[in-house]
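Following up on my earlier thread - several people asked me to post the actual chain instead of describing it. Fair enough. Here it is, all 344 residues.
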Amino acid sequence: MKPYFAFQWHITDYCDQRCKHCYIFSEGNCTELLSMTLADIKKVIANIEDMCEQLERTPYFYITGGDPILHLGFWELMEIIKEKGYKFTLMGNPFHLNDEICQKLKSYGCEKYQMSIDGMRETHDYFRKPGSFDCTIEKITCIRNAGIKCVIMSTVSGTNMKEMPDVVDLVVKNKVDIFAFGRYCPTSEDKDTGIEPFEYREFLDGLWKKYEKYKAEGVNTYFNLKDHLWTLYLYEEGIFKIPSYAREDMIYDGCHCAGCHMTILPNGDVYACRRFESKVGNVFTERLKDIFVEKEEIYRDFDKFEKCSKCELRGFCRGCPAVTYGSTGNFYGSDPQCWKETGV
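Reply from S.P.:
Thanks for posting it. Predicted structure:
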């Protein structure tokens, strides 16, 4: 198996929700709801195949929107993906799922279905819409009964951070397969996530102890350490150690932006990362391989990171440059939640 290259593919803007932290509709964007035509979907797949053949990668699809199921050609896309044998995850809403739909998704090869929980009922519904919390909890069972792994993703900010331990208990109680969270990426309208650096470290410490407790009890939920500041926390706790083979000029882990991931929007625009303004081209007018090699190179200039380039964890962490960009406008600046002093 060749190494995977991940494509976060937004096939439609249509969505049942207008979440307060959604980057798609922030700042008055997306005034016209778009969906890819089936002909354009086939062009995208051909361009992806060309790129992956050139780079000796295997494509992996994270198909999303909006809500991808709302795309009028969604099931035709499923037929194409199944015929080609590609692995994929769906990232969507719970509202159009039922036992029959989930069984159908499984028959097309869906490995995982990702939904969101952004706090307990009142907080989650405040971010999304009334009834969203209860519907999400209900559909976890539909997904798992179909043999699809259920992923719950949370967006963490100062508004809901204190509820995350309760969210962890909730996902464990409902036998969620995978749980992860990422930090809110501020827009130009709001430059603050509302989290101080050492407050965030304390938050990670509390969750880590909860994760370890559940693992010791034999809980099967996998706690995905998505936020790269987990690496710093585990390093300070002596749990993560820099491998003896590691070279200072190499990148081994951390942010996948411009490394093994890109995003494609319904209008064909290609982003290095959808969580910040990083448009690098268009899939309908350019080869993805050329975009990746030539235009995304600016995001792989790791010596430009003002703080991270001086840190011994440079090759493994680098925080979240998207959060940094949203907070400061500088992709290479210091992660606003990083508590580490340079060189310490």
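The chain has ten helices and ten strands. That should answer part of your original question.
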